[in-house]
Design brief:
With about 170 residues, this protein is α+β, with helices and mostly antiparallel strands. The protein has a single domain, classed as OB fold (Dihydrolipoamide Acetyltransferase, E2P) (Beta Barrel), CATH 2.40.50. Helices cover about 20% and strands about 30% of the residues. Bound molecules: zinc ion. The site of zinc ion (ZN) has 8 residues, from loops. It comes from Lactuca sativa.
């Protein structure tokens, strides 16, 4: 049996797949929902927990109404001293680099097209200390980023730079 083996390494971001930075989950049971092409979270039905917008027997969460949410799932190529390889980075680690939640990012990208592309460019070349885990799950192709620490002193998450580029102040 494969053990969840962890390694820590220093690497540089070579490229980020900006076409698929996030995925959609049911905000109730957090299972993956099929991606729709419509921009707002418009999925109203989850096969797993049967959570629908109209359900009154299911406890409400927060403002109610929204039945799906976005989480980061970022594929990126990184280079170590000896090789270049692809890793997948999920929500918790990706937030460190992006500086916001996936939902905030999607909302921002709606107003500012090409934000995904720009964010990827911003992060390319960053030196990172990453902890990688080889999933026990045999069908996962990529090593997973468990944690990430940017090495540059004064590192700014991509979102900070994006907001600066677009003249958006976080406190407005
Ligand atoms: Zn669900």
């Amino acid at each position: 049996m494969d053990v969840d083996k962890r390694t820590t390494t220093i690497c540089t971001v070579v490229a980020i797949d900006h076409t698929a930075l996030y995925y959609t989950v049911c905000s109730f049971c957090e299972r993956t929902l099929p991606e729709t092409n419509t921009a707002p979270p418009s999925v109203t039905y989850c096969d797993h927990c049967n959570f629908t917008r109209n359900t009154s027997t299911v406890p409400h969460r927060g403002g109610g109404g929204s039945t799906s949410k976005r989480l980061f799932r970022v594929l990126m190529s990184v280079a170590t001293e000896t090789k270049v390889f692809e890793v997948v980075m999920f929500d918790r680690a990706a937030r460190v680099l992006f500086g916001c939640s996936a939902q905030d990012f999607v909302d921002f990208a709606k107003l500012h097209p090409f934000s995904g592309e720009t964010a990827s460019k911003i992060l390319e070349g960053e030196m990172l200390k990453v902890t990688l885990s080889k999933p026990k799950n045999g069908n996962a192709q990529h090593q997973r980023v468990v944690s990430v620490v940017p090495l540059k002193s004064g590192f700014h998450p991509a979102m900070d730079t994006l907001r600066e580029l677009h003249g958006v102040r976080p406190d407005c």
